[in-house]
Amino acid sequence: MRRMFYIPFSPKFLTLLIIIIMFGLGALFFGVVISTFMKIGFSARDAFLILLVSLLGSGVNIPVAILKSDVPVFRESSVRSFGTTYRIPARKFIKNETLLAINVGGAVIPVLISVYLLSKFPTSMLLAGTGIAIVAAVTYAVAKPIRGVGIATPALIPPLTAVIAAIILTSISQMPECQADQCRFVTAYTGGVLGTLIGADLLNLGKIKNLGAPVASIGGAGTFDGIFLSGFIALLLI
Fold first, then answer.
1. Mean pLDDT, the chain, integer
2. In the chain, what are the helix, strand and coil shares in percent, each to the nearest 5?
3. Which residue range forms the structural domain that includes residue 84?
4. Is 122 within a domain?
């Protein structure tokens, strides 16, 4: 029976094969992200820069406020919710307070891209605003406060909502000055980003101080936070 189960490759070749597969999947991911941003008018170079800055900025959190609380700070190292394990940031000299911050890669850059798109395609403003409101309402309904972490949402609900809203709104729109593909992309991206930001974070700011989180960062999972991924996945699915 032992002879029936064996690896037909030498350890060196198997290691090389694993490395090649990892680099191949990484290159495929980068290619998909770049081509996705090219859908909304960015050049390949600009798309690469956006991805690079987002990756580098995912480790940068800008403090904006300190929220006082009577709730003791959560001292576990991680919490699991929606099938995802969230690592709780550690802070020295912990008090009953939460440091509120905003993540550069996970929030600042996606918001700046959204503002740029709305200013570049002003005819999309009305549809995009409606899409943002729809995504914000749905995201707020499914957002869940997590003790020690902050506010979390199921990863796919905001982008799927943004896609469906963009398709429906552009299909029933009677705005000839707004080109269908253009408006659909802008509505999907801004809905995924700004709708998630508003529904998950801004509308739940009052709950954060009572969750015992040492640090609550908007877009705090960096590049793979719901805000960034919502916009990206929405464009990918549109």
1. 78
2. 60, 15, 25
3. 61-237
4. yes
